[in-house]
């Protein structure tokens, strides 16, 4: 049914619910799971300061997207435990654009996203990730009720 599933995460509890649903769908369908997280780079001054305080043997791990890499690895843990093939995508910029780009690049059949920000008056706010994804997706979208 599905060969490629894309899900976005920002490390929040609601995003974890969407990742959980996407993981179980991928496991049942034998689909590849693409986990996406967008980030704004850490300022160079902060990176330099953190590198100076870190032991020499771990300074290499301090980079502009260190936080997003940890978020992605955490999201992939359950999927890997279930035997799901996972690819991680850290993208600089807008979260909705990152999800849409990965879906298009990988030829995904499905995007799974949480509904946070899609209810009530919030659904009319420009920039709502679920709203933008649902209107511009190159494939089917499953919106998980997370709140």
Automatic annotation (TrEMBL):
Residues 1-145 form the UspA domain. Pfam families: Usp. InterPro entries: Rossmann-like_a/b/a_fold, Universal_stress_UspA, UspA. CDD domains: USP-like (cd00293). Belongs to the universal stress protein A family. This is Unannotated protein.
């Amino acid at each position: 049914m599905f060969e490629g599933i894309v899900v976005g995460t920002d490390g929040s509890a609601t995003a974890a619910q969407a990742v959980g649903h996407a993981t179980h769908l991928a496991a049942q369908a034998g689909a590849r799971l693409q986990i996406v997280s967008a980030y704004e780079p850490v300022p160079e001054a902060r990176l330099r300061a953190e590198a100076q305080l870190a032991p020499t043997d771990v300074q290499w791990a301090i980079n502009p997207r260190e936080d997003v890499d940890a978020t992605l690895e955490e999201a992939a843990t359950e999927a890997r435990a279930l035997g799901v093939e996972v690819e991680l995508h850290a993208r600089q910029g807008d979260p909705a654009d990152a999800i849409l780009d990965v879906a298009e690049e990988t030829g995904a059949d499905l995007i799974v996203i949480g509904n946070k920000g899609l209810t009530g008056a919030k659904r009319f706010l420009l920039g709502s990730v679920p709203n933008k994804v649902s209107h511009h997706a190159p494939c089917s979208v499953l919106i998980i009720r997370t709140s």
